[in-house]
Amino acid sequence: MGASGSKGPTQKQMIDLQVRLTMVTKKLNTEARKREKERDKAKLEVAKCLKKGDRAGAQTYAETAIDKDNQRLKFLRLGQRYDRVKDKVKEQQTMASLTKDIGKVTKVMAQVQASMDTEATMEVMAQFEEQCMDLEVMSKVQNEAMEVTTAPPQEQVAQFLQQIAAEHSIEMSAESSVPQNELERRQYEAVKKSMEACQGPTV
User: Which of 94, 144, 162, 177 is the 20 to 30 A CA-CA neighbour of 113?
Assistant: First the structure.
């Protein structure tokens, strides 16, 4: 019994309470408008009595107008209080809904964290980084090896240049190409020597 008494209002009860508060607020505002009309009516009677010189009648209607205006203000203040209460109930309802959703998310996050093996994850990531470094080293070695092994023999290069020059009636010179790096410089020197050997001594 103690557990059931400590439970908060249900969602349906919160909604029903908001509906009732809204209805009461509308009723209070309606009563305030009625008192406003009665006050204005009494004020007109005051003016009529004053025009007629009926001071006693004017005083009676004036008291009535003041009383109606006080009632109007009282209904308006009550309506404002009910509005504030309604806003608080709505806020509480929203917070209750958010708390429920957050509770569900928290449970799921706890399950996710429980299923995560941080040590295993770190080990896998370390292996991945190591493999990436190994691949970079292997790629670099292969590229360097290809630069060396794919270069044709310098004699063959020299003969090919001489062949193309002969076909197009071009006078070849050993200085026709400019080395761009150390490897090209060595190749250039070899080609130069091969071309000089093929051309023979100059007359």
Answer: 94
Q: What is the number of helices (H) and of strands (E) in the chain?
A: 6, 0
For 56-61, the CB contacts below 8 A with 24+ separation are none
- Mean pLDDT over each residue of the chain, to the nearest integer: 76
Rounded CA-CA distance 49/38 in Å is 17
**Domain match, 95 and 161 both:** no
Judge whether residue 157 has pLDDT over 70: no
Name 61's Cβ contacts closer than 8 Å, sequence gap at least 6. Answer: 42, 43, 45, 46, 49
Mean per-residue pLDDT, 187-201? 63
Residues 23 and 68 in one domain: yes
For residue 103, what are the domain limits? Answer: 10-116
CA angle 21, 22, 26 (to 5 degrees): 115
Which amino acid, 6? S
Is residue 180 scored above 50 in pLDDT? no
Residue 33 lies in a domain: yes
Joined together, the tokens standing for residue 156 give 């063959």
Q: Are residues 107 and 177 in the same domain?
A: no
Report if residue 58 sits inside a domain: yes
Residue 134 in domain: no
Note the residue count of the chain: 203
